């Protein structure tokens, strides 16, 4: 199994450009989420989805859009990139997240630099 | 917003020494998880603790959940260079649909 696949692994953007970070999972997980990781701040939740057609905001949603048209895919869109969005982005999925025993499976991350 | 504070932020020790990482909050969590992350990779789950006062052991790693379910600790006995990495705690609130991460503790075990 591939698990959680993120693309691209690295991306450099100019301020104001748009792009989409792709995330796909092949485990039939209901729950998918996007985090950003910045030094000393751990992982902060951007958006999450509990199933196809359902999305919700996390801690730091501003500047990001998501959609969940299929169970497998959960793309993260930056409509107008800003230097403050320079970060490492992680996609994670879980069968569900209402049970305390459920495990988040993370992708390998996408490093984004906005100049 | 439920906040998790980890301490210390960075720990450098010699192989064979013991270390403890702390994860504290003023909020109650229904469960708490510990992850380890290596450079260029995503975090990988080490353990989940659910019950207040619970202690779990994973080889040389001992995890404890506080009685009030507001704090947790990770203790590594006789650390090895392979234990080097970023350790993250993550707590799940009562609603269950969000996982809040601490800032992480970077551990370096020198041979």
Describe it for me?
Chain A has 115 residues and is mainly β. Chain A has strands at 4-7, 10-13, 19-25, 31-37, 43-51, 54-57, 64-66, 76-78, 87-94, 105-106, 110-114. Chain A is globular, with a radius of gyration of 13 Å. In chain B, the strands form two sheets. In chain B, strands 2, 4, 5, 9, 10 and 11 form a six-stranded mixed beta sheet that branches. Chain B has a five-stranded antiparallel beta sheet with strand order 1-3-8-7-6, with no helix packed on it. Chain B is built from no helices and eleven strands.
Structural class of chain A: mainly beta
Q: How many strand segments of chain B?
A: 11
- How many strand elements of chain A? 11
Query: What string gives the helices and strands of chain A in order?
Result: EEEEEEEEEEE
List SSEs of chain B in N-to-C order: EEEEEEEEEEE
Descriptors:
heterodimer, A: 115 residues, 7-stranded mixed sheet, 4-stranded antiparallel sheet, globular, B: 111 residues, mainly beta, 6-stranded mixed sheet, 53% strand
Secondary structure elements and pairings:
The complex is a heterodimer of chains A (115) and B (111).
Chain A: E1 4-7, E2 10-13, E3 19-25, E4 31-37, E5 43-51, E6 54-57, E7 64-66, E8 76-78, E9 87-94, E10 105-106, E11 110-114
Parallel strand pairs in A: 2-11
Antiparallel strand pairs in A: 1-3, 3-8, 4-5, 4-9, 5-6, 7-8, 9-10, 9-11
Chain B: E1 5-7, E2 10-14, E3 19-24, E4 31-37, E5 44-49, E6 55-58, E7 61-65, E8 71-76, E9 85-92, E10 99-101, E11 105-110
Parallel strand pairs in B: 2-11
Antiparallel strand pairs in B: 1-3, 3-8, 4-5, 4-9, 6-7, 7-8, 9-10, 9-11
């Amino acid at each position: 199994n591939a698990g959680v696949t993120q693309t691209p692994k690295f991306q450099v953007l100019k301020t104001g450009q748009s792009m989409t970070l792709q995330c796909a999972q092949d485990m039939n997980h209901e729950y998918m989420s996007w985090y950003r990781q910045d030094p000393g701040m751990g992982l902060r939740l951007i958006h999450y989805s509990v199933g196809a057609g359902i999305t919700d905001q996390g801690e730091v949603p501003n500047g990001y859009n998501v959609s969940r048209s299929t169970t497998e895919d959960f793309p993260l869109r930056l409509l107008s990139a800003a230097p403050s969005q320079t970060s490492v982005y992680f996609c994670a999925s879980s069968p569900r997240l209402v049970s305390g025993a459920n495990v988040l499976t993370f992708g390998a991350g996408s490093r984004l630099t906005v100049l | 917003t439920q906040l998790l504070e980890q301490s210390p932020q960075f720990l450098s020790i010699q192989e064979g020494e013991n270390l403890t990482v702390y994860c504290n909050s003023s909020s109650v969590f229904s469960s708490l998880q510990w992850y380890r992350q290596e450079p260029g990779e995503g975090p990988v789950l080490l353990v989940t603790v659910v019950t207040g006062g619970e202690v779990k052991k994973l080889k040389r790693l001992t995890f404890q959940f506080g009685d009030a379910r507001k704090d947790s600790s990770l203790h590594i006995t006789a650390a090895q260079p392979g234990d080097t990495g970023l350790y993250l705690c993550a707590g799940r609130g009562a609603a269950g649909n969000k996982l809040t991460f601490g800032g992480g503790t970077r551990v370096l075990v020198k041979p």
